[in-house]
Amino acid sequence: MSDAAVKAMPAQEAERELTDGFHLIIDALKLNGVKTIYAVPGIPITDFLRMSQAEGIRVLSFRHEQNAGYAASIAGYLTKAPGICLTVSAPGFLNGLTALAHATTNCFPMILISGSSEREIVDLQQGDYEEMDQLAIAKPLCKAAYRILHAQDIGIGIARAIRSAVSGRPGGVYLDLPAKLFGQVMDAEAGRKSLVKVIDAAPAQIPAPDAIKRALDVLKGAKRPLIVLGKGAAYAQADDAIRSFVEKSGVPFLPMSMAKGLLPDTHPQCAGAARSTVLAQSDVVVMIGARLNWLLSHGKGKTWGTEPKKFIQIDIEPKEMDSNVEIAAPVVGDIGSCVNAMLAAMGGWAAPPADWVKTVTSKRDENVAKMAPRLMNNNVPMDYHGALGVLRTIVKERPDAILVNEGANTLDLARGVIDIYKPRKRIDVGTWGVMGIGMGYAIAAAVETGKPVLCVEGDSAFGFSGMEVETICRYKLPVCVVIFNNNGIYRGTDVNKAGSDPATTVFVAGARYDKMMEAFGGVGINATSPDELKRAVNEAMDSGKPTLINAVIDPAAGSESGRIGNLNPQSALRKK
After folding, report:
1. Nearest to 469 by CA among 453, 485, 492
2. Is residue 409 part of a domain?
3. Based on the number of CB atoms within 10 Å of its own CB, is 567 exposed (0-12), middle (13-18) or buried (19 or more)?
4. Same domain flag for 234 and 132
5. Segment 508-524, tens digit of pLDDT
6. DSSP code of 83?
7. How many domains does the structure of the chain reveal?
8. What percent of the chain has pLDDT over 70?
9. Whole-structure pTM over 0.70, yes or no?
């Protein structure tokens, strides 16, 4: 508060202990356990970030708001507490909005807090600095949106945002803070009393006993049962209960990519390597924290075979049931409560038919054996399988490390090749399949867990957030970035036959991304063979130093759009 403002006050008010919006927001966040803010400084939040840092909150300052937002979103997933992203108004807010929508779609608890212009100017459209009705824009893209206009409402406003982000189905929340709010002054004692500590922000939602009985009755009648584990199951942190349920049931399980590690991918019941077989041939499918969206072909079509199926779905959101196909046994509640209730009601449980288990096991072993030689090649230039075979071994030796993964071929192939052994150790593009999450995720994973991070990127995916390698170096984070560099999107061999410009999917040939990391004081390494890649990654993981490895991949390796080329329309008149 300025000296002039103090002098202008009545004497009795000047003598009272006062506080302002800056301090009340910080105090409210600290009261509710917020320890980290992911942000990009600027008007009107620069001083707020300085003060937050001075008050003991760790502030991670990024180069772009979208990456700060992605960091906050995955922080929410890893901790079950809302990740906080703070941005400036208008353009900064818009940059963070993609991450907020991504968090909502993926059910990650996150709060995007943005400074904004004054309401009276915005409402009359009088042309304020970065004028925008941010609340109206945010509302359709997140779970909830709020604006705080008065200092005395800061406590309740932040409490509402926290509870909205984590209760029920988690998601993104927008909190609008007009610039005048920060400087509003009020009595310090009244300010302290106005703060709210959120109690039981995400209360357990107990499933109905009838729903549990119905689900177990359907499962008992299965001849070819399957359990599908989604990232919601990993988010729940009900790891012991889920493992006990899967093992007691004896049913083969298929983990979606971010659910890998709830039980090790090497577990005898894991059907990851027999995905096509179990989806097509199963007759009863138990969905735990997984949705029948595009990632599971909406529960229908040739992916699921011709035999009729019964679905049991465990989800906290009632509206998720019957979203694509009929759910024979909906179980509504939080995953921990639902799985524990099913365990308690199972009693003595008969194993699934032996012929079904044998079919799944045989197909899995056959596919693993077929893949093994491809993962052991030492080709130069490297192909995807040779490079991923190296990383597969490294992750096996370092099961506590967190794997961040994005790209087209780099993502699709790594998902099937690299085994994960512990929960929440693999994080990737999620439900939207959006590129650009890599550096933000890697930074938050290192900060929130204290574990080393291996970030495996396609060269195209890296381009969305690559400048954040400076952020990794500035905070000296134990992140090893491996870029699978094949000179382009999907492949680096496309040709523009109509002119001298490069084809739209082709990048600069022979680019040295490792030099970017060196420019900011990190370690940069160029790896041209699987042996060089193995040595470089092990050195990076041992040292904990920020490292970027440019893994040179054959430009002809890869396929159009990875494994989802069917989603990439092509003209019927396309010239051969």
Report:
1. 453
2. yes
3. exposed
4. no
5. 999 999 999 999 999 99
6. E
7. 3
8. 96
9. yes
